[in-house]
Fold this protein.
Amino acid sequence: MPADWQLPPGVSRSLWEFAADRELPSQESSHLGQSPLLTFDAQLVPRWFSTPGPLVDLGCGSGRSLVDFAAAGFACTGVDLSQPSLEFAAQALRDRGLHANLLRANLCELDQLPAEQFDYALLLFGTLGMIATPPARQQALGHAHRLLRPGGRLALHVHSLWPHLFIPGGRQWLLRDLVRRTLGSPAAGDTERAYRGIPHIYHHVFSLRELKRVVQQAGFETLRLVPLRATPGPPFSGPSSPSSKSLGQPSPGQPSPGQSSIPAGHLVLEQTGWARHWRCTGWLLELRKPSG
């Protein structure tokens, strides 16, 4: 186990332990499958990225997205810090007769990958928030931008700070975080909580202003910004045209790599109205690298 000063840039002690755990990859699919928000990601992003092309999954984990996109004909590359996760992803691909290039690397240090070789990039499931310190998160977004061809697109999912309004002790945390933001502290937005058996795992949550700033600084244009929160919706009435506003049974013929499990019932995922960015638990973005 390396000393703290030996950890790679952007990697917290808790993330290092998370990446080294050999049990977690086998549990990832069932764990993430319980989240309607992440299932929504898995259904909506393929509607945005519907034409096969070279794709890089930054923080691919055990291959949840890689398998689906590879099955749909995309030429996939998966990058993750966790060797156990990459081994699990390789087996999941082999089990389906699929292939993807897999690389163990820190998302802040991707100079070994040539620039402008991908049409699509994924940075999903809150992965950006697991990177410690603002400079390291900006480096990761910068690499995503560098790896995309002009006109290439990135799907990004991050978590919002505002759910702290509704959890025990959350409002006191928000007040302290407001002070940190006012003072320009680099620790503003940083949280620690128990996650999948690892205590005090680091995770950064965003304000909308911060999110827009880091995306712009990385050189991206925002095509879509979807505020997400799982709330009960009206009974699902049957097949309809694809919509980013709800999660029910998928429309027949809708292009979607693989098959994702869908929770029973009907949930409204996209928040609307003037308070939508305050009520949401996070945002799903479609970003584009400018062509010019």
